[in-house]
């Protein structure tokens, strides 16, 4: 049954960029159910741009959760001031409904509890902190989109939309100027948030060489911090180098909306591409397939079903880079021919025209 007298909704999603993209259907469903409500969303500073221009979100509040901060925000000199500002802003309004969108994270649940006034909706993960939620849904190992649907259905709200990022004409014009001379547009993202999710960069070079043989100059995308790859690849093959030139999620979404296909490690650009309808070839580790894989038809996800070394993949909760392995054997074992075949399959129409 849908809750009554809900004037303000506070949704807390302190995850990484891709996770926040997958949460966007929830915001539309909330506003459609409570059209006169004020919807506030708390996200990490690294994911704030995902919600820019989103017509269903009334207020975005930044909070760098120390247990999820891989970007150093929490260690900055203005950290205490930023935390105080975030907490003060959250408490500035009565929150009739608080929704915890992160599963199996007691720190996240504890953070949400302090803002509960009437209703707290969260996943039942078997933790003692679950007792503070008066509405909850059983935690299941299903895709993140389906998990959010189950959670919202427990209070009578149907979530039927797909993830979406909202970009404008300014974003579209900027990207058109950058790629106007490119006919067959293959975007390649060789980066990832953690090193063990990366397919070897030498393999990306070889894929670019094979695409060059088809008169295709791939569009290389990435954060400005990956300029070392930019310098490396420019000397090897013919590419359109846009590393560091798409400065916002909206610009990246605009770029990918104008591409034929994206080849990427399992990272945020994959979810950006899916949100704008661009097909993907994704190289991923085994335990990402069921919970964070692509849901739309026509994509190709390449990854092993089980860890080849029998140890499973390390958790995202591992904070320090020194605690993470330098590479993933399962990802390194994915062959060039497999990736090339997947790309050509998605480019069939473009290559035949």
Write the layout of secondary structure elements.
Layout: E1 8-12, H1 17-33, E2 38-43, E3 59-62, H2 79-90, E4 97-100, H3 106-113, E5 119-124, E6 135-138, H4 144-153, H5 169-179, E7 186-189, H6 201-212, E8 219-220, H7 227-234, E9 240-241, H8 249-257, E10 261-265, H9 268-275, E11 279-283, H10 289-292, E12 300-302, H11 329-332, H12 336-346, H13 348-352
Parallel strand pairs: 1-2, 1-4, 2-3, 4-5, 5-6, 7-8, 7-10, 8-9, 10-11, 11-12
Helix pairs in contact: 1-4, 1-9, 5-8, 8-9
Describe the structure.
By secondary structure, the protein is α/β, with parallel strands linked by helices. The protein has two domains: about 10-155, Glycogen Phosphorylase B (Rossmann fold), CATH 3.40.50.2000; about 170-350, Glycogen Phosphorylase B (Rossmann fold), CATH 3.40.50.2000. It has 13 helices and twelve strands. It has helices at about 15-35, 80-90, 105-115, 145-155, 170-180, 200-210, 225-235, 250-255, 270-275, 290, 330, 335-345, 350, and strands at about 10, 40-45, 60, 95-100, 120-125, 135-140, 185-190, 220, 240, 260-265, 280-285, 300. It has a six-stranded parallel sheet with strand order 3-2-1-4-5-6, with helices on both faces. Strand 10 (about 260-265), helix 9 (about 270-275) and strand 11 (about 280-285) form a beta-alpha-beta unit. The longest helix is centred in the N-terminal third of the chain and has 17 residues, at about 15-35. The protein is globular. About 35% of the residues are buried. Residues about 315-320 have low confidence and may be disordered.
